[in-house]
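Page 42, continued from yesterday. The earlier attempt failed because a stray header line got pasted into the input along with the sequence. Redoing it now with the clean sequence only.
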Amino acid sequence: MIKKIFQWITLSSADPKKYSLSVKMALLAAVPYILGIVSASCGIGLVCIGLDAEGLNQFIQVSENIVVLVLSLVSAVGFVYGFLRKLYLSALGENKVVEEWSR
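This time it went through. Structure tokens are written below.
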């Protein structure tokens, strides 16, 4: 039962050989955190050796804020759309993942 729930969440409703839009958008939401790690490592001097650390750190912070905003919006809209589509197709009985369970 847990395997079926996991498949229903992670696999695409239209093509079970692909990952769902919800999963892709959730992974996209992780990108800002990776940028935050890069920014933090620059701040403590691990990556920015030989460069103006303050200027580079400021540039990374501004870039990070812009990327966080854009990716947060894109991933939120994509996640909600993908999950609602999955629910809709499941309600209509057209979810390919659920169809494979009956075979």
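Notes: Residues 20-91 form one domain.
Reminder to self: strip header lines before submitting.
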